Amino acid sequence: SLILVALIAASSVVTYAWLTSTGTSDSINYKVGDINYTIEGPQVADNTYVVPGQQIASGFVITNSSNIETNLRVQFTITVEDANGALKDWTIGSNNSTDELILTLNTNWVLDTDGYLYYGGKDLEADDVIAASTNPSSPIAGLQLNGALIGNDYSGAVITVQATFYAKQDAYIKWDEMGSIDWTTGI
Hints:
Distance between the termini: 77 Å
Radius of gyration: 32 Å
Number of helices: 1
Mean pLDDT: 81
Largest sheet: 5 strands, antiparallel
Oligomer: single chain
Strand content: 25-35%
């Protein structure tokens, strides 16, 4: 009976054999694309004073040094301080009955209902992208005061037009998916 117990104990021992092998793939290197634009201008008229109907800007010089395909949009911020120091709200566009600043766009630029000018439009097609190192046209062909809305009551007013350009990589993110960060709070 002791032999039987020993045989039972011996049969419960299990032998494990681990068969392993390792291998390493070749390295794959990736480079992150670079979006890089410089903006100069617009070329402003030499006159100290401007009058309605006079062209006051002739465009921006946009240099694209990006190494990937990109999309580009522009937002204008306008502040007007009249001779008494009061701030006025003005709009920019092409409607003579509502816009104080009349904007003439260059080819390929579209003013969307969200207030941005988009190169090729907001809903882009394949040919609306800006190829790497290809310089897009200026968004504005002309900018002038609307004489139908701007009269002597604005004599001496100071008009400040600021253009903010936004560039993003093409195809992998949409404009409405882009967020913003408050660098002060990190949110």
